[in-house]
Known about the structure:
- By secondary structure, the chain is an alpha+beta fold.
- The chain has seven helices and six strands; from the N terminus they run ββββαβαααβααα.
- It has helices at 60-71, 81-93, 98-115, 117-126, 146-158, 164-180, 185-197, and strands at 9-14, 18-30, 37-46, 52-54, 73-80, 136-144.
Amino acid sequence: MKILREGDRGYALAPERGRVEIVYEYRTVELEKSRATVSNVLVGVDTETGEVLTVPAQSTPKLKAAREAKKREVMSVRMPRELDDVLHLVADRYRVAPKQFAPAVIRYYLTLACANADMAQRLRTLSKSRLATGRCQKDLRLRIQRELLVLLGDIAVATEGATRSDMVRGAIVAAKEDVLDDRARERQRQLEAIARAI
């Protein structure tokens, strides 16, 4: 794949004018359907009018990511403050910022639960533990893909009427057991890989 650079030139078709010369520039682009704006996108611009005429293949993943981000939903969970402490301790274990790592840890366990009935049952059971059922004074807001949210709802119902919030609280307790109590080496390695990627 050829990677274009800012300042490269080429040709594109302009409405009602035919083939025109373009120059590649980084611009902020507004997506038509979602109205999201994406900064620093390489586009082909008409050298005469300044109109964006083309988007090279290398810019497509950036635009796709912006569209996908709009599809994410925010899930709100009330939880005991101690679970927030657990998330900070797990992040500290891997020497990463909790703000970025905590949501990834929770999504990791929820994804496992959606793929494995035993993990789903474990999260449900842990959501009833003493640690997970204290006074819920902390609000957690978690961005989650719509597809995972739907699957999570199905799993929650299938595991004896647990809620999505129960599954999130169970996921945090599972992280505590697996990482802080040193119970699951393989999951620790997977979480370490996630931490390094953040």
